[in-house]
From TrEMBL, chain A:
Family: Belongs to the small GTPase superfamily. Ras family.
GO biological process: regulation of establishment of cell polarity; signal transduction
Membrane topology, as annotated: Lipid-anchor
Class of this enzyme: hydrolase
Protein name: Ras-related protein RSR1
UniProtKB/TrEMBL annotation, chain B:
GO biological-process terms attached to the record: negative regulation of Ras protein signal transduction; signal transduction
PROSITE patterns: RAS_GTPASE_ACTIV_1 (PS00509), RAS_GTPASE_ACTIV_2 (PS50018)
This protein's GO CC annotations: cell cortex
Domain Ras-GAP, residue spans: 189-405
Cited InterPro entries: RasGAP_C, RasGAP_CS, RasGAP_dom, Rho_GTPase_activation_prot
Polar residues biased stretches: 21-38
Region of interest (Disordered), ranges: 1-38
Coiled-coil ranges per UniProt: none
Protein name: Rho GTPase activation protein
One term of GO molecular function: GTPase activator activity
Length: 198, 783
């Protein structure tokens, strides 16, 4: 199992994105998130994978909760709205906070520019986001539209794939060194992926 | 300033007496006697004029009224100014701690480069107080005094600036704005100016948001402003009064699991079975779907009672919040009111539900619920709640938010179980959100306060050099944009030009606190209030008379025949005029003189015993009587707040000290290599009894039987900086029962990971408290 967190600003559409992915519904209501969690079983490249998705509060007053999400999440969707530059600018700080807490440079992350259906209100160009992705070492970047269900599955799949790849790489490392297997979770059991949407 | 104590509008900004914003109904009594046409504009705000005029008469310090009211009011004022300055200090400390929090983890891993270590060290250096100082020359003092007077009295400049600055600039700006320029949190003029600034920022935000579903959602300088505002004294004190008791009692029940997400319930169920039995029975498969979990009979059985309990808890939270309506800080209610009226204006067909949703989006989403979900960051509880209470609190906050917004159970189907709570309380919640908006405006009193401020000659600001320079820098940078968004900045520009380019920030050790006298570059101080306010001489006489008699009645001994009811104002005046006390004599004479003048003007009449004036004097006295009780009540509450803020301050200082000693170790070790080891001096052992540590909270759990505790003691030694040996002893036995080596690094790391428990087999220590203790006892001088 894997845990994914969707993180970021209020009103960028994290919840809509998640609801589309998990339940195939378009939620249109003013309903700010405090903390919602979902589970979904998906098939990635022939492997079944149970995803736990944590949809987090974008409202900044709840930032004190972020640390816990970052600690427990295995992968992160960093969502901004293409109609708001400030939401895009916040990504950098979020990422460095994740790396700090994870104490590694290698954390599964996907950059998501949501609301791609609102082209006329675009405030963040495609190029700018690509530049950011490159400066972070080619972190995958997608533009999505939760409303039109565009690229929704793709971002979650991509993140899930990253988490799995990381597990395999690190799993072998541990056996090779046969050193402290502090995590203790047996290799055979299907592990849950936690994904946090920031 | 004796007379200012009489001013009701001055005393009413505070959180607890917000109800006194409802204007006392004693206006218009003179209207019938004077020319309505010329004085109409002031009629409407007569109630405020009275208070302002009292204030303006305060130059007349003939009688310092020293009765009980005056004494408690003085205590209250001192307390308020202490709270204001302490909150500012905490705000600054918090910034430092936040910075260090984020760096210390790296340091622990020894991954911090030397330059960065030095950078961190520089943040620690000025944990000490900023020194007092002054500008190098008088001209600068005057120019900055002009600039800050303009900024303070015309909030639109800062309002515009708040919208222009970037998220990285906003924190520093807000610090200066909320804790310095309008830092006096309990002074009505500064509070009202700050709220005016809010209004202009809010209304710009409404203008620039295309649809209301995205209103007030994003994190912008505006939302940061709201957060910072709710963190000032009145907001803190409200949260403490309303929430802390319930939250604390929830947190005590660490074992109370109220999870109602079927999948989570199912998972912990199979985990339990696995632990108990060793393997899973065939009918309990792993990895089932949410729907399957929800349909599981055992899961259902577990969830049903939990739903009930949750609804009861949420209802009691709601109950408490609603019952504290009148104690909700005025400023916060006023912001709710602005949200309501802006919504109505911008979207005339917005339904009541939409409006309530937006109010709830501020009041619950940005003020109450964050405190419920993370109570520690709001100083409501000491420790981080453990897993179960944390989840319960999150669920409660979600329920309250659902109540304020239209809940869509599409997101999490299991939340639909809680629908009865929403259905039952929806109407109540909407009513409450509307009630929140029922507060009066302050524009008239603000206008008055501003005039009074002009007439006062001692307006000043306590501000640091770096705050001055930073604000100057921001203005310089954004001045051109201010023009673009339609601001008239001619005066601002003129002041900026006179000042020249903004100086850079000075090193932290050279930063100084200045007392900046504020005055306008353009207006001269107003000596003649009557002219400024467009009121007649009669009004002034009448109000002065009222003030004089109120003061006399408060000063005359209670047994004096003059204070007998019904009041005879002339007798009051005569009695005072016969007293030996020169001040009383003069006040008495003045009272009689005013009575005669008012009679000659035909405003009062001797035949009815000066009824109009007498009634107002009585009302004022009555109001002041109530005021005293309110003041005493408010003192009690604010002392609570002040204590919280002070405790938080010691926590922050302690935290900084810990980092300081840790950093010292790291650096001295790095330096020590190759060089001769410094002479190690062993500190301790220091002895602590079980009882003592229990009382200080260091021991958070003890397995030692009550009757043996008196025999247990601990020795703590520090063989070298950063290392500690704790040993546990039983009286009479020569050898310790247990010995534990501790490294400061490990303790810090535990704290960093929110691990609060340090297990010593017989007792459990609380990590932050141990750190505080070690710090206090083993502080090694000279870092």
């Amino acid at each position: 199992m894997g845990r994914i967190s969707a993180l970021l600003d209020g009103g960028v559409g994290k919840s809509c994105l998640t609801a589309q992915f998990v339940q195939n519904v378009w939620v249109e209501s003013y309903d700010p998130t405090i903390e919602d969690s979902y589970t979904k079983v998906i098939n990635v490249d022939g492997r079944t994978c149970m995803l736990e998705i944590l949809d987090t509060a974008g409202t900044e007053q709840f930032t004190a909760m972020r640390e816990i999400y970052m600690r427990t999440g295995h992968g992160f969707l960093l969502v901004y709205s293409i109609t708001s530059l400030s939401t895009f600018q916040e990504l950098t700080e979020l990422r460095s906070q994740i790396l700090r807490i994870k104490e590694t440079q290698n954390v599964p992350i996907v950059i998501v520019g949501n609301k791609s259906d609102l082209q006329e209100d675009r405030a963040v160009t495609h190029n700018r986001a690509i530049q950011l992705s490159q400066s972070w070492g080619r972190v995958p970047f997608y533009e999505t539209s939760a409303r039109n269900r565009l690229n929704v599955d793709e971002v979650f799949m991509d993140l899930c794939r990253q988490i799995m790849r990381k597990e395999i790489v690190e799993g072998t490392k541990v056996t090779k060194a046969s050193s402290s297997t502090m995590d203790g979770q047996g290799g055979g059991r299907k592990k849950k992926k936690f994904c946090t949407i920031l | 300033m004796a007379a200012s104590m009489l001013a009701p509008s001055r005393a009413s900004t505070s959180s607890t007496t917000s109800s006194s914003f409802v204007p006392p109904s004693r206006q218009n009594t003179i209207t019938s006697n004077s020319d309505g046409a010329t004085t109409r504009s002031i009629r409407a705000s007569k109630r405020f004029s009275v208070s302002a005029l009292y204030l303006s008469m305060s130059h007349d310090k003939d009688i310092e009224i020293e009765d009980d009211l005056a004494r408690v009011q003085k205590i209250l004022r001192d307390l308020k100014s202490k709270i204001s300055s302490q909150s500012k200090k905490n705000f600054v400390l918090e910034k430092d701690v936040r910075y260090l929090d984020s760096r210390i983890a790296l340091l622990i891993q020894n991954r911090m480069a030397l330059e960065e270590q030095n950078e961190v060290a520089s943040h620690l250096d000025d944990a000490t107080e900023v020194q007092e100082g002054a500008f190098p020359n008088d001209q600068k003092t005057q120019q900055y005094g002009n600039l800050f007077f303009l900024l303070q009295s015309e909030p639109r400049h800062i309002a515009a600036l708040c919208r222009l600055v970037s998220m990285s600039e906003i924190d520093a700006l807000l610090q200066t704005v909320m804790f310095t320029i309008y830092g006096n949190q309990y002074e009505s003029r500064e509070e009202h100016l700050l709220l005016t600034m809010f209004q202009s920022v809010l209304s710009a935000q409404f203008d620039n948001t295309p649809e209301y579903s995205s209103l007030l959602r994003a994190n912008t300088p505006v939302s940061r402003m709201m957060t910072t505002y709710t963190r000032r004294g009145p907001g803190q004190s409200y949260l403490k009064t309303v929430l802390s008791e319930q939250i604390n009692s929830l947190i005590e029940h660490k074992e109370l699991n109220l999870e109602i997400n079927p999948l989570k319930v199912y998972e912990s169920m199979i985990k339990q079975v696995e632990e108990d039995v060793g393997e899973l029975p065939a009918d309990m498969p792993r990895g089932i779907s949410a729907e399957e979990a929800a349909a599981n009979p055992t899961v259902k059985e577990i969830i049903a009672p939990r739903v009930q309990i949750l609804m009861n808890i949420a209802e009691s939270f709601l109950e408490t919040i609603i019952s504290h309506l009148s104690e909700t800080p005025y400023g916060i209610r006023w912001i709710c009111k602005q949200i309501r009226s802006l919504t109505k204006r911008k979207y005339p067909d917005a339904k009541d539900q939409v409006i309530c949703t937006l109010i709830g989006g501020f009041f619950f989403l940005r003020f109450v619920n964050p405190a419920i979900v993370t109570p520690r960051s709001y100083m409501l509880v000491d420790g981080t709640p453990s897993e179960n209470p944390r989840r319960t609190l999150t669920l409660i906050a979600k329920m309250l938010q659902n109540l304020a917004n239209k809940p869509s159970y599409a997101k999490e189907p299991y939340m639909a179980e809680l629908a009865p709570f929403v259905n039952k309380n929806k109407a109540r919640m909407n009513q409450f959100l509307n009630d929140l908006c029922e507060v009066s405006d302050f524009y008239e009193s603000l206008e008055m306060d501003n005039y009074v401020a002009l007439s006062k000659k001692d307006l000043e600001l306590s501000i640091t050099l770096n705050e001055v320079y930073a604000t100057h820098g921001l203005l310089e940078k954004h001045c051109a944009s201010l023009v673009k968004i339609g601001q008239d900045v001619s005066r601002l520009n003129m002041l900026l030009q006179e000042l020249g380019p903004a100086p850079p920030q000075v090193p932290r050790k050279d930063n100084r606190t200045l007392t900046l006298p504020l005055f306008s570059r353009w207006e001269t101080a107003i000596d003649d209030l009557t002219a400024a306010l467009d009121i007649t001489q009669e009004d002034v006489y009448f109000m002065e008379a009222k003030s004089v008699f109120v003061q006399l009645l408060r000063t005359l001994p209670a047994q004096s025949p003059a204070v007998r009811r019904p009041l005879d104002l002339r007798r009051v005046g005569d009695t005072a005029a016969k007293m030996k006390d020169l001040a009383m004599f003069r006040k008495g004479m003045r009272g009689i003189e005013l009575l005669n003048q008012l009679r000659d003007l035909g405003i009062v009449s001797e035949s009815d015993g000066y009824e109009i004036l007498r009634d107002e004097v009585e009302q004022e006295l009555h109001h002041l009587g109530n005021l005293k009780e309110k003041v005493i009540e408010e003192i009690g509450k604010l002392e609570e707040v002040f204590k919280t803020i002070r405790d938080h301050n010691s926590y922050l200082v302690g935290q900084l000290d810990t980092y300081k000693s840790y950093l010292h170790n790291v650096r001295s070790m790095a330096e020590g290599k190759g060089r001769k080891q410094q002479k190690q001096n062993v500190l301790g052992p220091y002895k602590f009894t079980h009882q003592q540590l229990e009382k200080e909270g260091v021991i958070q759990k003890s397995n030692v039987p009550e009757n043996r505790r008196a025999n247990i003691f601990f020795n703590i030694t520090s063989p070298m900086a950063g290392t500690f040996v704790i040993s546990l002893h039983y009286k009479g036995r020569s050898r310790g029962l247990l010995e534990l080596d501790l490294k400061l690094d490990d303790l810090l790391e535990m704290q960093q990971n929110n691990q609060d428990e340090l297990d010593l087999e017989y007792v459990q220590f609380n990590v932050p408290k141990v750190l505080a203790l070690l710090n206090k006892r083993f502080a090694r001088k000279k870092w």
